[in-house]
Amino acid sequence: MPAIVLVGAQWGDEGKGKATDLMGRDVDYVVKFNGGNNAGHTVVIDGEKYALHLLPSGILSPNCTPVIGNGVVIDLEVLFAELDGLIARGVDVSKLRVSSNAHVIAPYNRTLDKVTERFLGKRKIGTTGRGIGPTYADKMNRVGIRVQDIFDQSILRQKVEAALGLKNQVLAKVYNTRAVEADRVVEELLSYAERLAPMVADTSLELEQALDAGKNVLLEAGQATLLDIDHGTYPFVTSSSATAGGACTGSGIPPTRVTRVIAILKAYSTRVGEGPFPTELFDDDGEFLRKTGQEYGTTTGRPRRCGWVDTVVGRYATRINGVTDFVITKLDVLTGLKKVPVCVAYDIDGVRHEQMPPSQSDFHHATPVYEELDGWWEDISDCRTFEELPANAQAYVLRVEELIGARVSAIGVGPGREQIIERHALLD
Length: 428
Known about the structure:
It is a single chain. The chain has about 425 residues and is of the alpha/beta class. The protein folds into three domains: about 5-100 and about 200-260, Adenylosuccinate Synthetase, subunit A, domain 1 (Adenylosuccinate Synthetase, Chain A, domain 1), CATH 3.40.440.10; about 105-195, Orthogonal Bundle (Adenylosuccinate Synthetase, subunit A, domain 2), CATH 1.10.300; about 265-420, Adenylosuccinate Synthetase, subunit A, domain 3 (Adenylosuccinate Synthetase, Chain A, domain 3, Alpha-Beta Complex). It has 13 helices and 19 strands. It has helices at about 15-25, 75-90, 105-120, 130-140, 155-175, 180-190, 195, 205-210, 245-250, 285-290, 310-320, 360-365, 390-405; strands at about 5-10, 30, 40-45, 50, 65-70, 75, 95-100, 105, 200, 215-220, 260-265, 270, 305, 325-330, 340-350, 350-355, 365-375, 405-410, 420. The strands form five sheets. It has a ten-stranded mixed sheet, with helices on both faces. A three-stranded antiparallel sheet has the order 16-15-17. Helix 3 (about 105-120) packs across helix 4 and helix 5 (about 155-175) crosses helix 6 (about 180-190). The longest helix is centred in the middle third of the chain and has 21 residues, at about 155-175. The relative contact order is 0.16. The mean pLDDT is about 90. It catalyses: IMP + L-aspartate + GTP = N(6)-(1,2-dicarboxyethyl)-AMP + GDP + phosphate + 2 H(+). GO terms for molecular function: adenylosuccinate synthase activity; GTP binding; magnesium ion binding. It is found in: Cytoplasm. Pathway: Purine metabolism; AMP biosynthesis via de novo pathway; AMP from IMP: step 1/2. It comes from Marihabitans asiaticum.
């Protein structure tokens, strides 16, 4: 069986959790392949809201095996707090698998993340301060701590002491911050070993065997296309590969196994943190989108920056990820607007650009070119077929579909698990 990749098409918070949950009922494995607890998914089931940060959304589907892949960085304290929260609500979490090659967020990386952002001042990136970036930096510098190291006290101590040899110098001499004690770090990490051990596996091998056995595997991205370390709005990006290409390196599944890429596109645009955002609104329309869409970060609670949908970004996501299907979420939020603008191109110094400019400076100075579509007033939250949508809502979806260059296979019309319209099957 092929593997399916699910990615965000904008700056994150598009509703990947809802889409994963929708397919999670019919897939055997859901794999988170990048990121950490710096992003969240919200899933609503029977009126109950579940906020997931580190765990794959598939953990809420009883027949699904959730996997944290090798491309993820794991805060063990957050992992077990999140698991305990789900257990208290009656969710079975016993199937969770964790890659032995995934890297662990050490306490000193959280410290470095916070003091670095403070030090940067106006030049800050807008990180969540959870140690994600410094942990990925350790990974690339080959001084990181992996899950498997937790089970070898000698190796763990060597790695912690080696890492702190330099980091404590930086903390003390650059940031004027107290040094971190190696003993405390080792003690904290070792305290999780017993509970962690039953979850740890060679997940790459397990996934390959599952595919050979004819099982469905869904690879779920954290963050989104424009936050990808290579293809996003650098430097205002995350520290991992959040595009479809990252699904292979972050899970250990070869690219020849992937035959379908599903991208999630919110019916408008949002962004958290710093960085350019051409369609951002600073008026009553922006506040309408924020309040109606409840646009506050699942992980941080920060108000999200809001703007109209950007189909230049959508086309870029289609190209970079090889998108075969889109899911448009939160279409219901646009209900009640007389006109709904759609960004179809950028004006940069008087020149029209219909594709993403390769220069960050040009993107920063891009002015959106809008096409206005008629809005609708009808409540669409109970619509379950495309034909039940008001004519203007249908026209909006069809125009966005035309502009982004890939078919829209599903449409979210509310927060609930059941509030979705499937135009084309997401799983064949």
